[in-house]
Amino acid sequence: MKTIILLFMFMQMLQADESVVKVVFDLTTSDIEVFERNVLKGIAFHKTHYEGSLKELSVAVVIHGGAYKFFIKTPDNKLIKQDAILMKTHKNIAKRIALVADLYEAEFLMCKAGLTRRGLKEKDIYSFVKMVPTSTVGLIDKQGEGYAYIPIGK
C-alpha cells in the first residue's frame, strides 16, 4: 500500500512539473516600442495563452544593456531625460511594469555590475526588481532551473 501511495505522489509531482512552463527574457533593448511589445504586452499574452492550456507560465526578465532606463523610479535621471518618449510616458510605463510584476508574477532581475557602471544605485530602481551580480549569472541560473531563453534586443 505504501508503494502505491508513493508512486501516486511521485506521479502527481511529475504532472505538476509538466504544468509549469518557464521562460527567461534577456532584456537589453533601449527601444520603448520593443519593450512595450515584448515585455508589457508580451508577458500578458503569453500568460493568458498558457493559462488557456491549463499551464502556468513562470516568467523571469534579466535586465541589462539599454533596458535599465525603464526601471528607474524618477524621471529626472539622465538616462530617462535622453529619451523624449520615455519622459512623456514614464509614469504610465512605471504603473504597467508594476502591474506585470504583481499581476503576472514576473520576476525582474537586474545586472548589478551594469547598474554601478551607469552611476545608478539600487535605491534608484523599483523595489520589486532584484539584483543579480551580473546578467550572465542571472541567465545561467534561470536556464539551469529549466527556463527557456528568449532575447529581447534591438
Report what the structure shows.
The protein has 154 residues and is an alpha/beta fold. The chain has one domain (23-152): Hypothetical Protein Ychn, Chain: A, CATH 3.40.1260. The chain is 51% helix and 19% strand. The chain has 6 helices and 5 strands. It has helices at residues 2-18, 32-52, 78-81, 84-103, 112-117, 135-144, and strands at residues 20-27, 56-63, 107-111, 129-132, 148-152. A 5-stranded parallel beta sheet has the order 4-3-2-1-5, with helices on both faces. α2 runs parallel beside α4 (84-103).
Highlighted features:
154 residues; alpha/beta; 51% helix
CATH fold-level assignment: Hypothetical Protein Ychn, Chain: A
Helix percent band:
40-55%
Number of strands: 5
The number of distinct helices, counting runs of at least 4 residues, comes to 6
By CATH reckoning, the class would read: Alpha Beta
Number of domains: 1
Report strand %.
15-25%
Gross geometry = globular
- Biggest sheet descriptor: 5 strands, parallel
Mean model confidence by pLDDT: 90
Radius of gyration: 18 Å
Q: Spatial order of the strands in the main sheet?
A: 4-3-2-1-5
Order of helices and strands: HEHEHHEHEHE
Q: What is the level-2 CATH architecture name?
A: 3-Layer(aba) Sandwich
Structural class: alpha/beta
The low-confidence runs, each spanning 5 or more residues with pLDDT under 50, are: none
